[in-house]
Specification:
Layout: E1 3-7, E2 13-17, E3 38-39, E4 41-43, E5 46-48, E6 67-72, E7 77-83, H1 87-105, H2 110-126, H3 128-139, H4 143-164, H5 168-171, E8 177-179, E9 182-186, H6 192-205, E10 209-213, H7 220-231, E11 239-241, H8 246-254, E12 260-264, H9 267-277, E13 283-287, E14 293-296, H10 302-313, E15 326-330, H11 331-346, H12 366-381, E16 385-388, E17 403-406, H13 413-416, E18 423-429, H14 432-440, E19 447-451, H15 455-464, E20 469-472, E21 491-492, E22 505-507
Parallel strand pairs: 3-7, 9-10, 9-12, 10-11, 12-13, 14-15, 14-19, 15-18, 17-18, 19-20
Antiparallel strand pairs: 1-2, 4-5, 6-7, 8-22, 13-21, 16-17
The structure holds adenosine-5'-diphosphate.
């Protein structure tokens, strides 16, 4: 921190503080994590070589011989190579899941099933440090996020659903429940371990078996989870983890012996999946994109609201489907809020994801960085005013400065489309009716936030907003007992809480 003291003639002393703070680096140690050079497919409790042949994703030279690289987006170095499952491999995994379902898992007393789910939760806790490091290495998110949010919340999901396994008669009083069979689960790259936990925990607690595919850019923590599952002695075939890209996902979706698809990812792929399963009796839950409105009223505690906005869009690089990427500020306080936001983004630390001081890590992939840059250009061309922090960015890897746009119109693409990066579009409003109209004017409806001093206003807003989750005077808070899911193009079905049991059960009487 630079500090100069200038003595003027009038004898007044003026202090000029440089606004940029530099913290000493505090990197987490990579040596606390073990990453294999190569990972096979986890099928029937064993590591199985991919059958190889033509890579499932064509036109990609990095894929050959049945394996593909996974890299660290903060420096583009290769971390490991991972098997690519083709249709035959997926079929093997589904068969293993079916056999485990029929022969073991569906017959097992629920209280016994619960013990395995609980054991997985405990083992995630025991390996929390290693999992957090691998999550940050493979995905680029700051260690503070993976250590304090992703990994503990993943463990909590297993713990929470272990508790429900033998209490389904209390979850659905006077109803008899029946598991569905084999669930195909496809997850994205923004919360790799947490999404795996969201999907696997309720599925197996309710007596189903699973074939799960992590995203191609972030497979490593799901593969670590496979190691944990193997160590936990979960009966072979109850959880199978296959890696690969879109074609591997499609092989799961189209497999005739899958009873349920649980998907989190883009709205475009969600639509493909919905078309693919139309006319089959596969059940589905889809958790898709979002463009959350974060609304600040003039009576809100402004500093807390500004911090909530920062947390909602910048931490995690904006790689969150429920990120508060649209900010609506009441006109009377807009100038003040925008100034505070500009000052605050100037102080955000962008850099090494393993450094405990880092606020904003690396963008997950080159492709995602290109998408973000495309939207920055669109925003400028649409006439919005762009402001970025002046921080310097590392030379290698995929990085984006925290960015905000002012003078944004409701119809601008940066206010309508999901960017999935640290980019905030700021709009203003005068009345409650106007902001409700604007906030709901979106193809999405996953989440929203309201900042106000008045409880009555909170209830009025939450009642009228078409969003699956509305946070009040906070943002991006999660708990395994709370359901999460969307309206409109953000998908359907709920994950988490008691609601999250239902997609994995039939109520039979
Ligand atoms: P994102 O834009 O967040 O990467 P995607 O929807 O492209 O979201 O990817 C989410 C997950 O869906 C990933 O695991 C990806 O491999 C998988 N996927 C991509 N295309 C398909 C498809 N056609 N069918 C099934 N899964 C797919």
């Amino acid at each position: 921190m630079a500090k100069t003291i200038s003595k003027k003639k009038s004898n007044t002393i003026k202090l000029n503080f440089d606004t940029s703070w530099s913290y000493a680096p505090a990197p987490e140690s990579k040596s606390a994590a073990t990453i294999n050079k190569q990972y096979d497919l986890f099928i029937n409790g064993e590591w199985v070589k991919p059958s190889g042949g033509k890579p499932a994703r064509l036109n990609d030279d990095s894929r050959s011989g049945g394996y593909f690289d996974t890299i660290n987006p903060a420096n583009e170095e290769k971390l490991s190579e991972v098997a690519e499952a083709n249709v035959a491999d997926v079929d093997k995994a589904v068969k293993a899941a079916r056999t485990a379902y029929e022969k073991v898992w569906k017959k097992m007393p629920a209280k016994e099933r619960a013990k395995y789910v609980f054991r997985i939760s405990r083992m995630i806790q025991e390996k929390a440090r290693e999992l957090a490091i691998i999550e940050s290495l493979d995905g680029g998110k700051p260690i503070r996020e993976s250590r304090d949010f992703d990994v503990p919340t993943a463990a909590n999901h297993f713990f929470y659903y272990a508790g429900w396994a033998d209490k389904l008669e209390y979850a659905f009083p006077n109803r008899k429940t029946e598991s569905l069979g084999v669930a195909g689960q496809i997850i994205p790259w923004n919360f790799p371990l947490l999404m795996a936990a969201w999907k696997i925990a309720p599925a197996i607690a309710t007596g189903n078996t699973v074939v799960l595919k992590p995203a191609e850019t972030t497979p490593l923590t799901a593969l670590k989870l496979a190691e944990i599952i193997q160590e936990s002695d979960l009966p072979p075939g109850v959880v199978n983890i296959v890696t690969g890209a879109g074609a591997t996902g499609a092989a799961i979706v189209n497999h005739p012996d899958i009873n349920k698809i649980a998907f989190t990812g883009s709205t475009d792929v969600g639509k493909i999946i919905q078309r693919a399963i139309a006319g089959t009796n596969k059940k589905a839950t889809l958790e898709l994109g979002g463009k959350a409105a974060n609304i600040i009223f003039e009576d809100a505690p402004i500093d807390q609201a500004v911090e909530g906005v920062i947390n909602g869009i910048y931490f995690n690089q904006g790689h969150v489907c429920c990120a508060g990427s649209r900010l609506y500020v009441q006109e009377s306080i807009a100038k003040q809020v925008i100034k505070k936001l500009r000052d605050r983004i100037e102080s955000l630390i962008v850099g090494d994801p393993l450094d405990k001081n880092t606020d904003i890590g690396a963008i997950n992939s080159r492709q995602q960085l290109e998408t973000i840059h495309k939207y920055l250009d669109i925003g400028k061309k649409e006439g919005a005013e762009m402001y970025q922090s002046s921080c310097s960015l590392p030379g290698r890897g995929f990085w984006c400065r925290p960015t905000l746009f002012t003078n944004v119109a409701q119809s601008n693409r940066i206010a309508q489309e999901e960017i999935f990066g640290p980019v905030l579009a700021i709009l203003t409003f005068r009345t409650d009716d106007e902001v409700i109209e604007k906030a709901n004017n979106s193809p999405y409806g996953l989440s929203a936030g309201v900042w106000t001093d008045k409880g009555s206003k909170i209830f009025n807003m939450t009642r009228r907003m078409r969003a699956g989750v509305v946070w009040a005077n906070t943002f991006n808070k999660f708990d395994p007992s709370s359901p999460f899911g969307g309206y409109k193009e953000s998908g359907f079905g709920r994950e988490g809480g008691l609601h999250g049991l239902l997609p994995y059960l039939n109520l039979v009487n």
